[in-house]
């Protein structure tokens, strides 16, 4: 009788990989590259959406390779949920060096694998094997990109005001929420804009978010 894993599938001894990538051409290429390895098998390939965690919970892969920088989709939340709900599933995130704030947040999840999308395929394969054995595979250039954003220049109050503004609150609403005068709120926003080198509140929020400060 063949040994079976918790998901009911035969245990072949290969590293079971779930792949989440929105770009179909890239996803197809990665499936082909991974499937050619004798010690790996792709158990699922899908786009980066809310189904990733559900599919991973059902199939219980050894490694999940997730594209973390998909526009208009929160790859970071997917990584966090995989780390929280499936601690035995090792995660390798694929991203580029921009924005550095995303890299900072990914590193903050204690993710075992973080690979530059511009790296050769052999690097990804090595990362899959490495994290499957319990190791850590983090591309140095991504760490350097995260460090390039510098230290957070904002005070706690400026950050609080920026977060409320980023959530869509108006000046009067922020003032009411924080029990401040509207003039004080404007001063905090002005200080934040100056520190970020931004011309507008929206630019300040964007810069702070991309730099991992917000």
TrEMBL record:
It comes from the Bacteria. Keywords: DNA-binding, Phosphoprotein. InterPro entries: CheY-like_superfamily, NreC/VraR/RcsB-like_REC, Sig_transdc_resp-reg_C-effctor, Sig_transdc_resp-reg_receiver, Tscrpt_reg_LuxR_C, WalR-like. One of its GO terms (biological process) is regulation of DNA-templated transcription. Residues 16-132 form the Response regulatory domain. Residues 147-212 form the HTH luxR-type domain. GO terms for molecular function: DNA binding. This is DNA-binding response regulator. It comes from Actinophytocola xanthii.
């Amino acid at each position: 009788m063949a040994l079976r894993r918790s998901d009911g599938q035969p245990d072949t001894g290969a590293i079971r990989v779930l792949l989440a990538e929105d770009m179909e051409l890239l996803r197809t290429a990665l499936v082909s590259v991974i499937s050619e390895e004798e010690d790996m098998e792709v158990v699922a390939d899908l786009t980066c959406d809310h189904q990733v965690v559900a599919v991973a919970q059902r199939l219980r892969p050894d490694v999940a390779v997730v594209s973390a920088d998909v526009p208009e989709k929160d790859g970071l939340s997917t990584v966090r949920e995989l780390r929280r709900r499936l601690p035995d599933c090792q995660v390798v995130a694929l991203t580029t060096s921009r924005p550095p704030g995303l890299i900072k947040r990914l590193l903050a999840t204690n993710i075992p694998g973080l690979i530059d999308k511009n790296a050769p395929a052999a690097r990804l394969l090595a990362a899959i094997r490495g994290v499957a054995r319990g190791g850590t595979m983090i591309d140095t250039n991504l760490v350097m990109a995260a460090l390039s954003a510098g230290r957070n220049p904002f005070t706690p109050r400026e950050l609080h005001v920026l977060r409320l503004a980023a959530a869509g609150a108006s000046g009067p609403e922020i003032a009411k929420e924080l029990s401040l005068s509207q003039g004080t709120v404007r001063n905090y926003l002005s200080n934040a804009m100056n520190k970020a080198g931004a011309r507008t509140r929206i630019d300040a929020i964007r810069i702070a978010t991309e730099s991992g400060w917000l």
